[in-house]
Amino acid sequence: MHVPDGFINAPASAATGVVAAAAIAVSLRGARRELDERTAPLAGLVAAFIFAVQMLNFPVAAGTSGHLLGGALAAILVGPFTGVLCVSVVLLMQGILFADGGLTALGVNITDMAIVTTVVAYAVFRGLVMVLPRGRRSVTVASFVAALLSVPAAAVAFTLLYAVGGTADVSLGKVATAMIGVHVLIGIGEAAITALTVGAVIAVRPDLVHGARGLRQRLKLRVNGELVDVPDAEPVPVAARSHRTMWAVGLVTSLVLAGFVSFYASTSPDGLEKVAADHGIDKKTEQHASSGSPLADYGVKDVDDSRLSGGLAGVIGVGVTVVAGSGVFWAVRRRRTSDASPVSTGV
Amino acid sequence: MTPSLEVAGLAFAYPDGHQALFGVDFSIGRGERVALLGPNGAGKTTLVLHLNGILSGGTGTVHVAGLPVGRQHMAEIRRKVGIVFQDPDDQLFMPSVREDVAFGPASAGLKGPELEERVDRALARVGMAEFKDRPPHHLSFGQRRRVAVATVLAMEPEILVLDEPSSNLDPASRRELADILRSLDVTVLMVTHDLPYALELCPRSLILSDGTIAADGKTAELLADDELMRAHRLELPFGFDPRSVPAAGGRP
Amino acid sequence: MGAGHTHRLYRHGHSPVHGLPPHTKLAATFAFVVVVVSTPREAMWAFGLYAVLLGAVAHVARVPAGFLLKRLLIEVPFVAFAVLMPFVAEGERVEVLGMSLSVGGLWGAWNVLAKGTLGVAASVLLAATTELRELLLGLQRLKLPPLLVQIASFMIRYGDVITDEMRRMRIARESRGFEARGVRHWGVLAKSAGALFIRSYERGERVHLAMVSRGYAGSMPVIDEVTASRAQWSYALALPCAALVVCLLGWAL
């Protein structure tokens, strides 16, 4: 869903533009670290791949089909920085060449579809890979969950943007319900396809899956006709274990937190509507729900939906927590590794 | 006279432990056209990637026009060794033919009319001058391969290394490319499976097998040696008899 | 998408608009859309004037109306959304043909439709009069980070190659009697996607080798420099300036 011009007001568009620019600047630096001077050709080819794969239709049922958004896939396959860059470039080109998505809405689109999806997906993915037992199956499972959460996360981000700068006064609750409801469905498709694709890549070239670098086979050297293990460069296992415990603790904490959120949401019958009311946007939802409009169904279903959205809020809560946690974590670890090893590019 | 290319004692294993070269020695004089023959997996591509220092780290040395291939002369080496890769789509990465041909010289710091002149000359040498402003992608495969050769010629290399130049070409394009290669006055190392093409173009051949040079001699004589050919999994096309074909001449 | 010289929206021509330097056109289009978006939605006449301005540009660029209108179809999903808006939005309501519609929703729908359509039309005009290669040069000239422009340029160069590979894989699947009909076949399609990724990535590695072999060391050599004269700038910026006047009037009236 590429947002057109005029959908989000000018200040909010400008603000997201700044966010997008900053994120791209960070990603450019990060991508250079992920890929060194191979960045341009590799990221360009991956962008072309994302562009192509968005045209690959996955039939759902008679006549209907969906396609991949690709944010989660890009993050898992090539890493979050390169992923953000690739999806941003795809969006930029779609905006300029195909008029798909407004030019002033580029910031909104990039923030929503390139940044939120990739970052959430990668954070969830890393978190799960750390916690789950090492193995290919875990990577596939983690990809599934990561992609599953990334799409509704983008919907949440969109709803937030809409709350800040939406130009139409549709109630936030309705936007949220519609956006998140639809995107959970899309997320399931995205998740299945992403997991299957990552699985397919990992079966053939596991070294190409950025998110599964820990799973590589030990290298061997042939010394006088005998196979010898390559000596360890650094004592990894100790560090890995402590990381793993921390990840586990973090994930459990966020799950508990999520439980609370869901509980809270489902005890108050209109959880999300209440949030909307607090923002002073929505005051008459209940009233209008029964006002005979063709979409009154929305209102009637509100109670059920809010339970659903309560559960969702929980799931997304996990996502957000993991994002925040892993952000800090990663920053720390990056610093440590970059201190430890001077970069050597081998060409 | 210093040879264009001198390879001595080259051995290399990939980081995954797979050893591809086990001591390669040969030397190519200036202006020679030499074919490097060998079955799949003989280490041909690995050897090629050593010639301009993309792979390194094993033992042995490579000298290009007397200059050792190594970190300190990398820019110079890459200008002197022009590699034409097998898939022209990999080689032609810029949006137009002109920019692609200009990429190498521009990287070396050429600008303005001098750059333009270099591009025109390289394109003229492969007969592609009128396609200058076309995107590479809209050309036929044979045309793309010729432009790929031009991208390398524009750098005015000491030695031209072609990886499987005749693959995927129809007979006419194949002949056109042969004419172009014959008309060039640079040293050529042609890596190929295509034995008739080697015989047609290169007076001398090397056979690379199991990571070493197994034979070095006149192409016609090597191809006529059935036992040698069989030992290194090299097969001539059905009905082709190297003895019945006039061997490639040296420089005109 | 057609890579390199032309793309789907490009219309070859030699009009004054085609001849403008790409970065002036990019800047003008962007400024125009910004002005349109900042116009108050109540000033309906202003949007009419914007449409007239774009029509004038299309006329100068010799882009036929039919071409422009056909390309506007990309907006259809949002038209659907805009149509729903009056039904679901809040606030005061009016009765139209027996349906209760929200006034705010009607305004919202108008707002999205008008601004969205003008935005798409402006982008289509830009794309119709500017070659891909030029667009990239323009972006570079407008100080987009060079690495980003490089990535975009590789994406465009190889977009077709990869799409073509994808098409060949589909043909290969279909010639072996496979036709994706539902969720059951996702596995097969995902395997294709995985294979496509591996091919793309490996091609990226080979392209990198080819670049390094020709002296690439992290930055692209500057081969083409686009420049614009003051006259060209003022010519290009006439559109957003005219729009700005309209916009200010819209706020004032």
From TrEMBL, chain A:
One of its GO terms (biological process) is transition metal ion transport. The keyword Repeat does not apply. It is a multi-pass membrane protein. The chain crosses the membrane at residues 7-28, 40-60, 72-93, 113-132, 144-164, 176-204, 246-265, 311-332. One of its GO terms (cellular component) is plasma membrane. It holds the Pfam family PDGLE. This is Cobalt ABC transporter permease. Keywords: Cell membrane, Membrane, Transmembrane, Transmembrane helix, Transport. The keyword Transport applies. InterPro entries: CbiM/NikMN, PDGLE_dom. It is found in: Cell membrane. It comes from the Bacteria. Residues 244-334 form the PDGLE domain.
Automatic annotation (TrEMBL), chain C:
Its main location: membrane. GO terms for cellular component: ATP-binding cassette (ABC) transporter complex. It comes from the Bacteria. It is a multi-pass membrane protein. The chain crosses the membrane at residues 43-60, 72-89, 109-128, 233-252. The keyword Transmembrane applies. One of its GO terms (biological process) is cobalt ion transport. The keyword NADP does not apply. InterPro entries: ABC/ECF_trnsptr_transmembrane (IPR003339), ECF_CbiQ (IPR012809), ECF_transporter_component (IPR051611). It is found in: Cell membrane. Keywords: Cell membrane, Membrane, Transmembrane, Transmembrane helix. This is Cobalt ECF transporter T component CbiQ.
